[in-house]
Model the fold of this input.
Amino acid sequence: MSIPTDMAAFVRAVEKGGFSSAARELGLTPSAISKLVTRMEDRLGVRLLNRTTRRLALTPEGEAFFHRAQRILADIEEAENEVARFRARPRGKLRVNVGTAFGAHQLVPALPEFLARYPEIEVEIEMTDRVVDLMEEGADVGLRTGHLADSSLVSRKICDLERVVCASPAYLARHGTPGRPADLLGHNCLVFTGTPQLRRWPFNFPDGVREVEVSGNLSASSAETLLQLALMGAGIIRLADVIVGDPVAKGLLVSVLAEAHHVEPLPLHAVFPPGRHRSPRVAALVDFMVEKFGDAPWRVRKGRP
Done:
């Protein structure tokens, strides 16, 4: 236990009835215990102990100080034990900020397993596609895709996401399957509102990577909305495999132009304010996510789900 040495020497000497017994418990010499108590008396400007050859006797000031010091040392020991228990057994409220796509399709379904493993953790989720200030929002950990703009945050990479071009079987049955990137110009492509760069879909050509600027009659600010529209046969989408991987595996969506599509890895990081990464509950969640998602189990492989 890390405690004020002179206070501990004084309390133990009184409790044990002498400097020798206190010295054995604290791993010091009797003379060292005596010097520590004397130094404390000099600092306080009062005598705490009347010393005789046979025993120690508390002065009135020493009596008052002894009982208060006992409580202080007990509080310190209790606080350190509590922290040690937190380190050994993650517990407490864990506030998580996550985007809708990863949150709804991957994190939330995995939470029952996490909470069964750590029953003393209470998870509070804020699911939003808006990038928030973790410190201001009081979040312990956030999940971010793409480039990390805030260098003040501590981060740990979970995995790489990949975007996939896909559509429902019903849409393809009605409008045909594009055989080359240029065919997308004749299709209804569903895109994000207000993000021109995401309307330009990259493909591999003999002379390098080129972009095809797509368009359609529907756009949305949410990946989840675009997914639902595509599932209903409204058009072709290009979204991260973390959200379309399961529908593709179930045949609800079909990957198109997979051989030509230029894959741009999109890193997924766990980020936390400085110091939070040492929290046992934060470390438990991040380790769990690396374990569950590190190999991107939703990955849509070329030529098959």
In short: The chain is about 40% helix and 20% strand. The CA atoms of residues 94 and 123 lie 5 Å apart. The longest strand covers residues 154-161. The mean pLDDT is 86.
